[in-house]
């Protein structure tokens, strides 16, 4: 009897009945968070190089597809919808301002005429009301859509890259700044999760969750929870000795400050040179020198930060492919904007229908590569039916 009882449990791990299937290993989204940010910022850079609404819509579709395919099931990854709403709000505000305040764009196709408010002489150039033309609305639509696309690309980075993992990857000199930025970035997703939870609880109790009254009764617990999390975070950081620094010689401190200051000035001067026609010769060398000096200052400044990294993220092949695909999109769209500016910036005076340029559109489609070369995110396992 004893041997039969023992034999029935041979090979069955503790805590699981004999004959139960072993849990399947799950794949994790282990792409470096910096790769996701480089990819999304590169898409945003491509969006700033064009006002073609078809290309901008294609950029939004590419970022949305990658987010839908590789977004993990975490609270901070649900902030993509908030960025979409923010982008739509920015677009609507841009159109309202164009209608109410007018635009310097001349036009001949009058859509409506609003009552115009007379302004004093010192407010010349500002108009309230008046004639609203189709050219004004189209120009405002193109301009607002460009900014909205940039916001959506930044929202894709927030939905794909873990803020805590991004904090671990920052240089030591930016650790304190990184903590503040990451806390600010995680504040909004937690607020969204709290609002959804409280609204669901109110609906279950048969109470209104919309309108001014519902917003007031939901907003107070949300702010209370945010304050409690802030106090708990401050206490935890204080208990762990946050802010301790190492002793660094005075010469190293002065060299760090000089390199950082010169690097930032070089980056500003080089960027200005690239954006102006007169600085095309010195812009790129000054920008590269400034970036090198700033990186040297960050490396020296990291010597005063005493911290270690537990299981640091590495740049593997998928991470390089993600960052490279975004860089390729930005570079090819910038080249297309220089080679054929009329295709990437459709005119509004006179009004012309925008067309989709094939080569820039093919370049934008390179941004879909992360959806196929990165590992799938963790999904909640479905409950098994009893046999």
Automatic annotation (TrEMBL):
Biased composition (Gly residues): 1-12
Region spans: Disordered: 1-29
Transmembrane segments annotated in the record for this chain: 53-70, 82-105, 173-193, 257-275, 281-300, 320-339, 351-373
InterPro entries associated with the record: ABC/ECF_trnsptr_transmembrane
Coiled-coil segments: none
Main location per the UniProt record: membrane
One Gene Ontology cellular component: plasma membrane
Keywords: Membrane, Transmembrane, Transmembrane helix
Domain of life: Bacteria
Pfam families, per the entry: CbiQ (PF02361)
Subcellular location: Membrane
Membrane topology: Multi-pass membrane protein
PANTHER family xref list: COBALT TRANSPORT PROTEIN, PROTEIN ABCI12, CHLOROPLASTIC
Name the record gives this protein: Energy-coupling factor transporter transmembrane protein EcfT
Source organism: Streptomyces cadmiisoli
């Amino acid at each position: 009897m004893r041997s039969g009882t023992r034999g029935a449990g041979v090979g069955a791990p503790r805590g699981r009945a004999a004959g139960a299937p072993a849990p399947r290993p799950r794949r994790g989204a282990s792409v470096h968070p910096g790769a996701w940010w480089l990819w999304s910022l590169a898409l945003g850079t491509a969006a700033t190089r064009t006002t073609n609404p078809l290309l901008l819509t294609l950029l939004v579709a590419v970022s949305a597809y990658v987010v839908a395919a590789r977004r993990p099931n975490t609270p901070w990854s649900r902030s993509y919808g908030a960025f979409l709403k923010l982008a739509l709000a920015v677009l609507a505000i841009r159109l309202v301002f164009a209608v109410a305040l007018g635009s310097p764009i001349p036009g001949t196709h009058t859509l409506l005429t609003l009552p115009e408010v007379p302004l004093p002489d010192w407010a010349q150039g500002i108009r309230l009301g008046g004639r609203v033309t189709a050219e004004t609305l189209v120009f405002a639509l193109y301009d607002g859509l460009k900014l909205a696309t940039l916001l959506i690309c930044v929202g894709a980075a927030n939905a794909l890259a873990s803020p805590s993992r991004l904090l671990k990857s920052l240089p030591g000199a930016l650790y304190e700044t990184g903590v503040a930025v990451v806390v600010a970035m995680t504040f909004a997703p937690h607020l969204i999760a709290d609002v959804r939870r409280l609204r669901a609880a109110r609906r279950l109790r048969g109470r209104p969750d919309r309108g001014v009254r519902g917003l007031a009764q939901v907003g107070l617990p949300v702010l209370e929870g945010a304050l409690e999390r802030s106090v708990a975070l401050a206490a935890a950081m204080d208990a762990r000795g946050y802010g301790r620094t190492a002793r660094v010689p005075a010469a190293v401190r002065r060299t760090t400050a000089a390199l950082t200051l010169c690097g930032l000035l070089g980056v500003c001067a080089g960027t200005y040179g690239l954006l102006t026609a007169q600085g095309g010769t010195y812009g790129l060398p000054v920008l590269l020198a400034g970036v090198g000096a700033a990186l040297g200052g960050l490396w020296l400044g990291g010597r005063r930060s005493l911290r270690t990294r537990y299981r640091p993220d590495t740049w593997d092949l998928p991470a390089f492919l993600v960052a490279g695909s975004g860089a390729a999109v930005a570079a090819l769209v910038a080249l297309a904007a220089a080679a054929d500016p009329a295709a990437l910036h459709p005119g509004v005076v006179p009004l012309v229908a925008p067309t989709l340029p094939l080569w820039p559109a093919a370049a934008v489609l390179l941004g879909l590569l992360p959806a196929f070369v990165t590992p799938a995110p963790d999904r909640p396992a479905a409950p098994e039916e009893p046999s």
